[in-house]
Amino acid sequence: MVPLSARRPGPRRLLKAAAAAAAVLALLLWWLLPGGGPAPSGPVSFTTGARGGVYERYGELLKQQLGRDLPGVEVDLMPSQGSVQNIERLISGEASFTIAAADAVAAYVNSGREGADRLRACARLYDDYIQLVVPAGSPVRSAEDLEGLRVGLGQPRSGVNLIAGRLLKAAGLDPDEDVRPVLEGIDRMPELLVRGELDAFFWSGGLPTGAIQELAEATEIRLVPLGDLVPTLHAQEPRTRSYRAALMPSDAYPPVQDGKAVETIAVANLLVTTDDTDAALTEGITRSVINSRDRIGREVHAAQKVDLRTAIYTHPLPLHRGAERYYRSAKS
């Protein structure tokens, strides 16, 4: 009889041993590589966005990814009105990470408000497309046709509210005097449009936004082109430097677009933190964001645009030192 100690281990035992060795090796690499140390752990607050918006869903999926990549980190998601409130929460210390549109970040930085110099970026993510939604039978064909109408401008501390005001001014309209502003989020504006309590609404979000997809299934709507406002916006630089002309692809909302692209305006989204956030934590979260592109992109199509080559272009913010460390290691 062959002694137990001399028996060859079975395939299942070999697989378990290999997995255990890989886990130990990964942990050792984390500790021993430059900038290493104990794996990140503890609570992290992530402020996202309005109910039904892309920020909220992206945050949910990123939390799931971080549960796999950084199991010691406990992520708490906080809904918000949008980019403006998100930045305020970072500065106050209420949140550690967020997604914010580059125009809202630039407005805060240029304002010189308290803590503006502490903001740091982890990655450029995907672009928000500005969407002006009206009922299919609406006479509105351009932004200037909104005069005198009930227009959803987003919640007061949202990124959409910031850009909607700028777009109305570019169209020659005063947001407070020439339209009847309705300060609601994407969770309420589609319902108000269906009930006839709203004539139009602006939305700034990744494509497609689930709430607008659902609206298109419930009633007939139309997307109003905004490309004609680009020259006027660009004439207001540097305040409007974050905006670029863009085409909303024909397949963003197929039931609405009849195979046609829509001329509009786009603005980049950034993953943002502050300079005092732990470098190892920031490095790990940045790595997860880049590596989870395909996984998250299956549910949030906008996330498919996250790319290692463009992620470092985070104007108007410098990269956090932890994010820099990740990009250096990814390129080596």
Entry keywords:
single chain; 332 residues; alpha/beta; 10 strands; 37% helix; globular
Summarize this, please?
The chain contains twelve helices and ten strands. With 332 residues, it is of the alpha/beta class.
Helix tally? 12
Q: What is the straight-line distance between the termini?
A: 53 Å
**Rounded Rg:** 23 Å
Largest sheet entry: 10 strands, mixed
- Mean pLDDT comes to 89
Unreliable residue stretches? 1-7, 19-28, 30-35
Class by alpha and beta content: alpha/beta
**SSE topology string:** HEHEHEHEEHEHEHEHEHEHHH
- Helix content percent band: 25-40%
Tally of DSSP β-strands: 10
**Proportion of residues in β-strands:** 15-25%
Q: Please tell me what the overall shape is.
A: globular
What this model shows, in words?
Strands 1, 2, 3, 4, 5, 6, 7, 8, 9 and 10 form a ten-stranded mixed sheet that branches. It contains twelve helices and ten strands. Strand 5 (150-152), helix 5 (159-170) and strand 6 form a beta-alpha-beta unit. The N and C termini lie far apart (53 Å). The protein has 332 residues and is α/β, with parallel strands linked by helices. Helix 2 crosses helix 10 and helix 10 (279-291) crosses helix 12.
